[in-house]
Design a protein that fits this description.
The chain has 310 residues and is of the alpha+beta class. The chain has one domain. The protein has helices at residues 2-20, 31-42, 90-112, 162-165, 172-184; strands spanning 52-54, 58-59, 65-66, 70-75, 80-88, 116-123, 126-127, 146-154, 159-161, 190-192, 204-207, 213-214, 217-218, 221-223, 278-279. The strands form four sheets. Strands 1, 4, 5, 6, 8, 9, 10, 11 and 14 form a nine-stranded mixed β-sheet that branches. The protein has a two-stranded antiparallel sheet with strand order 2-3. The longest helix is centred in the first third of the chain and has 23 residues, at 90-112. It is globular.
């Protein structure tokens, strides 16, 4: 009997030893995410309130989650509600506040003479892959670092819908949507809207993914490319080399973090299946309608040049 037990004990000890060497270590969320959350609070960019309530840490499944998540019900000190409260991280709340104050409200006044009083959103935190595609990288939604905006409501009750109004050329609604889309490229590092691909025909995807740095500031992925009259003026070069063009938005969520240091960061990530989608507050979007070829932005990726202060 003893002879049959000891091999099992030895095997268990060997597995325990391997785990200590990193063979069975659980994948860890990239450290920059928690650092960004903590810095946001330390700098006072977001303060908890009745409209922005702290939530317990979300740890998993896998590396999904946030260290200090927030339940966002309204922006601008409660003046602009979110039609359905979303779970999101601190840096995204700060970016939404800036976009609303600097871009959305000025263009709403310019086009309609009214303020926006409600942001309509499909959702924010959801542990899933990009566009819910099997085998794809984890989306920034998996870290509360993204939100999908589907429309806006004005103080007079009018509703502006991205799926309905984006293509209504020569209307104030279409002009407003294109202006706030272009302006979002100054506040977020990824902005996708109708024409970017077949998945974003009915909403703006906004996130703060880490795409690296260009010679003029953070690298930004903005599709469809805003027209020249809506792009910000170029900042003076700071001496850093420009980042190369890329075809797809880079997502380092599944990067292979070397346990012992010294190795490079594998931006493609391990070839493993993502965890099944876990949705906290995301509304399923309607099935995509494939646009005509001339509706999709096929130009090279736009890296909007901004000053480092942005």
């Amino acid at each position: 009997m003893a002879r049959s037990v000891w091999p099992k004990v030895a095997a268990g000890a060997a597995l325990f030893s391997l785990a200590g060497c990193g063979w069975l270590e659980r994948a860890e969320r990239p450290a920059w995410r928690a650092q960004a959350e903590n810095a946001c609070f330390e700098r006072g960019l977001v303060r908890p309130s009745a409209s922005i309530a702290p939530l317990p840490e979300i740890d998993g499944p896998g590396i999904c989650g946030m260290t200090r998540p927030l339940k966002l019900a309204a922006l601008a000190d409660g003046a602009v509600s979110v039609d359905k409260p979303v779970t999101i991280d601190c840096p995204m709340v700060a970016a939404l506040e800036g976009w609303l104050a600097d871009v959305v409200q000025p263009y709403a006044q310019q086009n309609f003479g009214e303020n926006v009083v409600e942001l309509e959103a499909f959702g924010a935190y959801s542990c899933r892959t990009v566009d819910n595609l099997a085998g794809a990288q984890l989306s920034e939604h998996s870290f509360g670092n993204a939100i999908d905006v589907s429309g806006f409501k004005l103080a007079d009750g009018r509703e502006i819908s991205i799926v309905r109004d984006w293509k209504r050329s020569d209307t104030q609604e279409a002009a407003f949507l294109r202006e706030v889309h272009a302006g979002a490229c100054q506040h977020f590092t990824t902005v996708l809207g109708p024409g970017a691909d077949v998945f974003h025909y009915n909403h703006f995807h906004l996130d703060l993914a880490m795409h690296g740095t260009t010679s003029t500031g953070p690298r930004r992925y903005c599709k469809p490319t805003p027209p020249p009259d809506l792009q910000p003026p170029q900042a003076a070069p700071d001496g850093l080399p420009p980042a190369p063009n890329f075809d797809e938005p880079m997502d380092v969520a599944r990067a292979s973090m070397k346990p012992s240091g010294g190795g490079p960061l594998d931006l493609r990530g391990p070839a493993v299946s993502a965890p099944p989608p876990v949705s906290f507050d995301v509304r399923p979007a309607p099935a995509p309608v494939l646009p005509a070829d001339d509706d999709v932005d096929n130009t090279p990726t736009s890296a909007i040049p901004l000053s480092k202060d942005d």
